[in-house]
Amino acid sequence: MAFETINVEIDDSVALITLNRPEALNALNSQLLTELSKALAEADQNDKVRCIVVTGSEKAFAAGADIKEMSEKSFVEMYLSDYFGTETDQITKTRKPIIAAVSGYALGGGCELAMMCDFIIASDTAKFGQPEINLGVIAGIGGTQRLTRAVGKAKSMDMHLTGRFMEAEEAERSGLVSRVVPAKKLKEEALSAAQKIAEKSQVSVIAAKEAVNRSFETTLAEGIQFERRLFNGLFATEDQKEGMAAFLEKREPQFRDR
Ligand code: CO8
Q: Per the similarity annotation, which family is this (predicted)?
């Protein structure tokens, strides 16, 4: 399907989705979020794709939800349309891993979108923020919840209440991003991480993603039980036999997703 606000490139087993509304610093409007959720669903269905990277431009991953599109909406319009709800639910349903490669601004909905991905690799120019407070609103697609889980209450409150931005170095130190790389290397680093993931057994990759995500939804005891069941279950796969045999035989494993 042809998209207007995003570009999708599939190379080998990695889908690279680039947000493309440069005139608005990739602000998220209904069209972009619909296209992005469709592209992710398609990548999830595409047997060739094993990992997905979502990125923006050097200046902006995304500078938030589109203020022009939202500004005149009424409560009833927002509520009845479940504005952005369907699309963001679809994004977080993606089973294959998604890496956010963030350069420049990741603000408001942009920061929230990055946090919907499985992990964030940031360039040294990245700036994260939840500045909705300056617009007389608050975060609306997960920011108060996901940022708090990522960086803790103190920093999350600070960012949501003052609207201040967090630079890449602080974001890494605080656990919001997994690595920081020079801006010029961002795409290469994200694609190389995605390629590494693509080489694993897809069964264990999806199990790992499910288990880590479960830690946000349940108690420690339940989460550990969930992990143990998945771990035990993986012994029913050929890939477990292959992975362990390859280690013992000192060779590279050949995973077949079985
Ligand atoms: N929405 C719409 N247009 C935007 C946005 C945005 N969020 N951000 C930037 N733009 C546009 C500007 O209007 C400008 O367009 P134009 O040239 O036509 O005037 C163009 O992008 C370039 O922007 P600037 O000239 O402002 O560029 P600067 O380099 O001077 O500044 C900033 C960059 C600091 C990023 C600045 O653009 C800015 O502050 N942007 C807004 C950031 C913000 O407040 N984001 C939060 C938005 S609200 C939100 O995300 C809520 C999410 C939850 C939605 C939930 C729905 C249920």
A: Belongs to the enoyl-CoA hydratase/isomerase family.
